[in-house]
Amino acid sequence: MQRTLLTLAEPNRFNIVELLKKGPKSVGDIVQALGISQPHVSRHLRILSEVGIVSSRREAQLRIYSLEAGPFQELDEWFDSFSVLWEERFDQFETYMLDYKKKEEL
Known about the structure:
The protein is α+β, with helices and mostly antiparallel strands and 106 residues long. It has 6 helices and 3 strands; from the N terminus they run ααβααββαα. It has a 3-stranded antiparallel β-sheet with strand order 1-3-2. Strand 2 (54-59) and strand 3 form a beta hairpin. It is elongated and about 75 Å long. One of its GO terms (molecular function) is DNA binding. This is ArsR family transcriptional regulator. It holds the Pfam family HTH_5.
């Protein structure tokens, strides 16, 4: 999971992932959409592939990239682990505000 977060922290890789959320794309499509050079896109896609964030398939002479669900499911589970903490804090805040309101009414 840490590798996924570190990989996505790089703005161009994050932008590639955002673009691939809309569906599979070729390297050329990504280059055109993001306005960065083909070698840079290929390098970022290689890194995203190594981490397991994207996969590719061949279609004639094109390589088509798409997102892999696994790393994002892992991130989702990690973020969900914080929900208990936030719920407890909101409950504490609600208790505080109710106590405050009662004091104000006195």
